Amino acid sequence: MTNIATDVTDLIGDTPLVRINRLSKGGAEIVAKVEAFNPASSVKDRIARSIVDAAEASGELKPGGTIIEATSGNTGVALSMVGAARGYKVVIVMPSSMSLERRVLIRAFGAELVLTDPKGGVTAAVAEAERIRDSRPGSIIASQFTNPANPAVHRRTTAEEILRDTDENVDIFIAGVGTGGTVSGVGAVLKELKPNVKVIAVQPAESPLLTGGEAGPHGIQGLGPNFVAQTYDPSVVDEVIDIETPLALETSRRAAAEEGLLVGISSGAALAAAIQVAQRPENEGKRIVVILPDTGERYLSTALFENLRD
């Protein structure tokens, strides 16, 4: 029996779980879902395929059409990959503060890249994406921050994979929040099956919008846009943990040096939160599943590796 994918988008999902052995001295077990195993190396591959699938099915996206999106980076890379595989033009709009690797990867997949003033955050990028959409017939905006196909794919795939690979033995689920699709989609399914599961969201301490604070600059790329997305469902979240950028960076570096896991800055934030939760006495013997959204190779030019460059 042959086992050949129809195209690269068939390789998205079914990412592995791995135990965290050295970073945590707490009494709870930490298990990480390593989303860098997706073909474009991030969790955003899932929503890119889901959004395009939904747009194709509805007839909104037609052959030869153009996909436009405002993004902090990984969704842009993922949409560029999906667009290349399916023959669509792709235009990605993102703040110029995002990593060089993201920009190069988007262009490598053949997409057009438009950079906006980082002071405007993702909000400014969204406005520019809408302007481009209005000027290009046959184009759609992927709308990751509002599109129900975002949390839906996490309900359908990410959550089911976690339940399958843990034999439904999950006590606590932790994920960082950018669009909020991961924590909302996975959290909803886990709570439907296991009402006592605790769902924890992670946000940059410098931009605590999820808990009523004000947006502010931070260095955790992919988390904490300067607004709360419609795809974030606070009703499934039991707790929000604030992680400062320096701790996220330090934990990412430690993951590589102590666990052999080369992960990005947002992964460091999520892991830092998981370590804190694992140390709580009430969590002794429990299992924590944490999402690691992307690979550290996407940040070689950033502060994450500044002390390692010659």
TrEMBL record:
GO terms for cellular component: cytoplasm. Pathway: Amino-acid biosynthesis; L-cysteine biosynthesis; L-cysteine from L-serine: step 2/2. SUPFAM superfamilies: Tryptophan synthase beta subunit-like PLP-dependent enzymes (SSF53686). It holds the Pfam family PALP. Catalyzes the conversion of O-acetylserine (OAS) to cysteine through the elimination of acetate and addition of hydrogen sulfide. Belongs to the cysteine synthase/cystathionine beta-synthase family. This is Cysteine synthase. It comes from Schaalia odontolytica. The gene is cysK1.
